[in-house]
Amino acid sequence: MNKSKQLFTLITSEGELQVSLKEVDVPEPKPHEVI
């Protein structure tokens, strides 16, 4: 399985914007899927 980076955002109840970058697994595409 390949790894990629994904950007996540969260707005807290106080109105603060939190931005984070996390490494996630990217599954292999199926034969009928296009990347």
UniProtKB/TrEMBL annotation:
Protein name as annotated: NADH oxidoreductase
Organism (species): marine sediment metagenome
